[in-house]
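Could you show me just one protein sequence together with its fold in token form as a worked example?
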Amino acid sequence: MESRINGTQIISLPKIEDRRGNLSVIENDIVPFEIKRVYYLYDVPSGAERGGHAHKNLKQFLVALSGSFDVVLKDGEKEEIVTLNKPYEGLLINPGIWRELQNFSSGSVCLVVASEVFIEEDYIRDFDEFIHFKDITDK
């Protein structure tokens, strides 16, 4: 399913149902990039926000392993809010998209699969700088 924000997409994960519990898998044929880093957010306090940045090159795939949270996406012109609440669906975010994670439910866990290792220079942490970056790269 395509998002209204170009450069983002909801991707369904394989869901293997079993009476003993369900299983989903993330492999390189599921996400359209080589996986180089995996981390997760948990114990996010009520009202706290995460993200608040964009990437120049890194691609991310976010999954709500438990609970739910909203992902606010901005491309410099449009804004969209995507709620993640299914452990068998993830949100692909390509470079050049601003993201903010908010409204974490109690006990939620956000899995992040990334195309690159952590490189601070890849982050755009100021929204005005992001808009300038978009103006330059979109021309």
